[in-house]
Amino acid sequence: MGASEFDNVGFGSLVFNRTAMKKYLSSEAYKAWDNCVQQRQVLKNETASEIAEAMKTWALEHGATHYSHWFQPLTGVTAEKHEGFMIPTGDDGFKLEFTSKELIKGEPDASSFPSGGLRSTFEARGYSAWDPTSYAFIKDRTLYIPTVFFSYSGEALDKKTPLLRSCDELNKQALRVLRLLGDKKTKSVTANVGAEQEYFLIRKELFNRRTDLRLCGRTILGAPSPKGQELDDHYYGAIKPEVSKFMKDLNRALWKLGICSKTEHNEVAPAQFEMAPFFTTANRANDENQLTMEIMRRVADDHNLVCLLHEKPFAGTNGSGKHVNWSLSTDGGENLFSPGDSPASNRRFLLMLAAFIKGVDEYSELLRCSTAYAGNDMRLGGLEAPPVIISVFTGQYLENLIDSIINNSSFEGSEGSLMEAGKAVLLRIPKDLTDRNRTSALAYTGNKFEFRMPGASQSIASPVTYLNVIMARELKEVADALECSENPEEDLNALIRKMLKEHRRIVFNGNGYDGHWAEEAKKRGLKNLSNTAETLPEYLSEKNIKLLTEGGIYTVTEMQGRDEVHKQKYCSVVLIEAKTMIKMLHEIFTSVALFSSEISKASDMVLNSAILSAIDRESKELLDNTKKLEGLVEKASEYEDNSSLMVFCSNEIYPQMEKCRKSADALEKLTKSDFWPFPDYTELLFSV
Ligand code: ADP
Ligand code: MG
C-alpha cells in the first residue's frame, strides 16, 4: 500500500485529550475528570494533583519546557505568560516542578487588560483558573492550559467565563424542558459550534509597504482595481499551488492541535479563502477558533504571506465573516434542532424552533451588539454580508409549517421530497429542508442555525454566549409555564402556537440583500441598527440586563465594565485609523509633488496641463479635507466620555475620512504608479 497523506499527521498529538488522559491518568482520576466535564461535578484536590502530574509528564515527553495559563481577556484575542518547569535545587542542579496549585490558579498581572474600570474600583489583581472542560495543548515548547480570568472580587475579566456560564444555564433549562417532554434519560445538553473562518492572503513584501495594513489590518486608501470580483471567477475556483501549500501546512498544524480543519476553498473576492473546521462543543470551538486565527497568521508568515482577518481589508470587494454554526445536542447524541422525518408532528423540534424564533425576536438588539465594532461596520450590509437587520431564515418548507400552526390549518408539506436534477443525474437526491438562499443574519440549515453576522477577526465567545443565554431564557419560560400546568400536553401546543404567532415577524425568507427588505422590516417593526455607534447604546437596556443577570451570565457591574470596553475600543480603532490615514496622506502629498514636477518637465504641453490641472484640483481638495480631518482628531482628544466620543467618531471622523479617501483615490488614478508611495489594489489582490 502506498503512503497516505494522513500517515503522519499526528491528529491531536499536541493535545492532552481523552486519549492522552486515559494513558497518563489512573482510571479513577479519568472518571472524576469525565464527571466534571459531563455532569459539572467539582474536582477533588487529589484528582487535580494527579492531573497536574500527568500533564507535566505528558508535556515533558512532548518537548515542553514551559507552561502557561492561556486566557481570553476583553481584547478579543488570547493572552499568555510562560513559566518554566525548571526550578533550582540549591546544589547547582535543578528539578522540574508543576503542582496542582500551578495548574489550578495563576495570578497574571491584570492591570493592563481592559476591564472598563472594573479593577480601579476593586483590586488591580487578576486571577486565572484552569478550565478543565477544554483541553490543554502544546505549542512552541509550552504547555498551554485553558483558563478563565477574573478579578479579586470575582468579576469576570474575560470572554470565556460568561461563555461557560451560558453553557451551564442552557444545559439546566433545556433539561427541564426535556423532562417535561417525557425524556428521562438525557443527562446533559450541550451547545455545539462550527465556526467557518474567512481570510485574505497577501504577499508579505506588499503588506510591509502599506502603513494602513500594518497598523489597522485594512486598506484605508486605495483606488479600485480595474478588475475586482465581477467575474466571480475566484469563488470555488481552482486553488493555486502556492495557496494550496499554505493550506496543506495550515491543516497539518491544526490537525496536530486536534482541530479538524475540514473544508477549504477560494472565496468570492480575489485572494480570499475560507476554512471550516468540524464542529465541536461551544467551549472548545471557541478555543479552537482562537488558535486557528493564530496558526493562520503564523503559517502565512512562514510562506512569506500575510493572513488578513480584518472584516473589510479592501473596499469594494467582499468582506470576511465568521459564520457561527450553532446547534444543541444531548449526551445521547440527539440534535434538538433536527426535524426528523416528520417535522410537523415532532413537538420537541417545533418547541425548539419556536423558542429560538421568539428569542431572536425579543433579543435581536443583543445579538446585533455582539457583532458591533468598527471593522464589522465596514462589512455588514454590503457585498454578500448579511444586512444589519436581524431576521431568521427558515426556508419555505418551515415557513409553511409555521403558518399552518399559526392558522390552525392543515400542513401540505411533502415530506422527504426528491430533487429534480434532470436526466443527467442518475441518483435521486433527497431535498434539503432549506435551500442555500442565506441572506439573513440567522439561517436555519437543516439541523443548526448559522449566525452569519460575526466578523472574521472577532472572538466567537460573545455571539455564542448570547445565543445560549437567549435560548436558555426561552426554555426557562416554557418550563416555568408547563411545570405548573394541569394539562401540559395541550398547553404545550398552545404555547408553541403563541410563540410562533407573536414572533412571526422575525421570519424572513426573501432576499435580505435586496433594498426592499429594509422597508419591509420597518413595517414589521424590526430594528435597523446601522452601525456600532447606533447599536452599542442598546447593550445596557433594561431587558438585556434582566436577561443576562437573571441568566447568571454577568452582574450589572460586569455589564457596565464591558459596555465601557466596547465603546472605548471602537473609539480607539477609529482614531488609530484616522491618524494612520493622515500619515499616509502626507506621504501622498510629497509623492504627488514629485510626480507633478516631473510632468512639468515633459514636452507635450497639452497633456501636461490637462494632467497637472486635474492633479491640482484633487490635491487642493485633499489638502483641505486633510486639514479638516486633523482638526477633528485634535478635537477628539477633548472628549472625556466614550459614549459621546463614539458618536463623534462615527458621525464626524468616519465621514471626513471618506471624503479624504475619495480625493486620495482620485489622485492615485492620476499619478504614475512608480511615484505612488504604496502598492495598489491590483498588486495586493492579484499577486497571490
Ligand atoms: P454549509 O455548507 O451548509 O454552511 P457545512 O456542512 O459545510 O454547512 O458546515 C459548516 C459548518 O457547520 C462546519 O464548521 C460544520 O462542522 C458545522 N456544523 C455542521 N453540523 C453542525 C451542528 N450540528 N452543530 C454545529 N455546527 C455544525
Ligand atoms: Mg455555512
Number of domains: 3
What kind of sheet is the major sheet? 9 strands, mixed
How much of the sequence lies in strands comes to 5-15%
What compounds are bound to the protein? adenosine-5'-diphosphate, magnesium ion
Overall geometric form: globular
Q: Give me the secondary-structure category.
A: alpha+beta
Report the span from N to C terminus. 36 Å
The radius of gyration over CA amounts to 27 Å
In round numbers, the mean pLDDT is: 89
Uncertain residue segments: 415-431
Total strands: the figure is 18
Individual helix count = 23
Task: Determine the fraction of residues in helical runs and give it as a percent range.
Answer: 40-55%
Oligomer: single chain
Detailed description of the structure:
This protein is an alpha+beta fold. The chain has 3 domains: 3-158, Glutamine synthetase, N-terminal domain (Ubiquitin-like (UB roll)), CATH 3.10.20; 159-196 and 321-550, no CATH class; 568-685, Four Helix Bundle (Hemerythrin (Met), subunit A) (Up-down Bundle), CATH 1.20.120.1560. Strands 10, 11, 12, 13, 14, 15, 16, 17 and 18 form a 9-stranded mixed beta sheet that branches. Strands 1, 2, 3, 6, 7, 8 and 9 form a 7-stranded mixed beta sheet that branches. α2 (27-39) packs across α3, α11 packs across α15 (461-483) and α20 runs antiparallel to α21 (605-636). Bound molecules: adenosine-5'-diphosphate and magnesium ion. Adenosine-5'-diphosphate binds at residues 192-194, 196, 263, 276-279, 325-327, 335, 445, 447-448. Residues 192-194, 196, 263, 276-279, 325-327, 335, 445, 447-448 line the site of adenosine-5'-diphosphate.
